[in-house]
């Protein structure tokens, strides 16, 4: 048996346009300049309050970051519903998940800096809910790269971290996996570079979702 834990943003779905637009509007609404896309990409994967504080160059989450986090969450659904703000699956993800879900020796889960509501929306919108048997979100655990998301998924499913694979596009995913004692697979189609993922501890890199099959099965 293996437990396969997927990150969401930048791994399953291409959500940078939506995340960046909500983040940019939040910053403007609080009197700041619009951040650039590179700044937003650099924090995707972190819990939102920590991400906002980091984009502001703050060492810790303060009252303003908390207020900005609440504002971000309040405007997110409205921005998401705008016609050009979709979060499509990356090419090859649907057949990958369906192939993995058909294998009795595999359990599939999600570990994400999204909210529980956000993850539920993604899984339901893509018909993935029956396939994901376990998940941890920003509402459940400390922010990545803390290992709790992985270790709690392992505990819930009765799996050992050594039999667990974490798949993600961010350095925080790789760091989280290694801190938990799991295998870390970086994906090249997301928001961090291959060099950054390897430096963060990735055991290997997948350049297309099909590549993951040889590392998992």
From TrEMBL:
Pfam families in alphabetical order: HAD_2
Is Hydrolase tagged as a keyword? yes
Q: Which InterPro entries match?
A: HAD-like_hydrolase_sf, HAD-like_sf, HAD-SF_hydro_IA, HAD_2, HAD_sf, PGP-like_dom2
Q: What is this protein called?
A: HAD-IA family hydrolase
List the source organism. Rhizobium mayense
Example GO molecular function term? hydrolase activity
Which keywords has UniProt assigned to this entry?
Answer: Hydrolase
Q: Does the keyword Mitochondrion apply?
A: no
């Amino acid at each position: 048996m293996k437990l396969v834990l997927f990150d969401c943003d930048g791994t399953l779905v291409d959500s940078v346009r939506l995340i960046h637009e909500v983040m940019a509007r939040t910053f403007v609404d609080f009197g700041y300049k619009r951040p650039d896309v590179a700044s937003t990409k650099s924090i995707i994967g972190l819990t939102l309050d920590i991400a906002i504080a980091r984009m502001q160059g703050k060492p810790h989450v303060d009252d303003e970051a908390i207020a900005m986090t609440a504002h971000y969450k309040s405007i997110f659904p409205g921005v998401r519903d705008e016609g050009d703000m979709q979060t499509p699956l990356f090419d090859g993800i649907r057949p990958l998940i369906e192939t993995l879900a058909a294998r009795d020796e595999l359990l599939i889960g999600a570990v994400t800096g999204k909210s529980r509501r956000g993850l539920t929306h993604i899984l339901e919108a893509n018909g993935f809910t029956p396939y994901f048997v376990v998940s941890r979100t920003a509402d459940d655990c400390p922010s990545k790269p803390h290992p709790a998301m992985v270790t709690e998924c392992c505990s819930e499913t009765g799996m050992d971290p050594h039999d667990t694979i974490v798949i993600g596009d961010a350095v925080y995913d790789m760091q989280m996996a290694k801190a938990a004692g799991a295998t870390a697979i970086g994906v090249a189609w997301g928001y961090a570079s291959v060099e950054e993922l390897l430096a963060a501890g990735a055991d290997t890199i997948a350049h297309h979702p099909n590549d993951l099959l040889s590392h998992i099965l």
